Amino acid sequence: LIRNRYGKGEVYYFGGAFALDTARVFLDKLGVSEPYSSRICLPERCELAAREKDGWQYLFVLNYAAQAVKIELKEEMQEIFGEE
What we know:
By secondary structure, the chain is mainly beta. Helices cover 13% and strands 36% of the residues.
């Protein structure tokens, strides 16, 4: 594992094959495994995609489960389509 500072950030290079456990530890150590955990909690079969435009942040929940799932919102949010 090599870390280099670049501009105001850092770049990591991992010279090896990733196993799922290796990837989890790597992302946890970097503090990026769950960057939105203070705002939303998702079941394991869901993915979160975040976008920002004109000062607004949009969170999209992608459900890969075969049935509807419940998500936990930890702060007030507005639904884009239903406006709830």
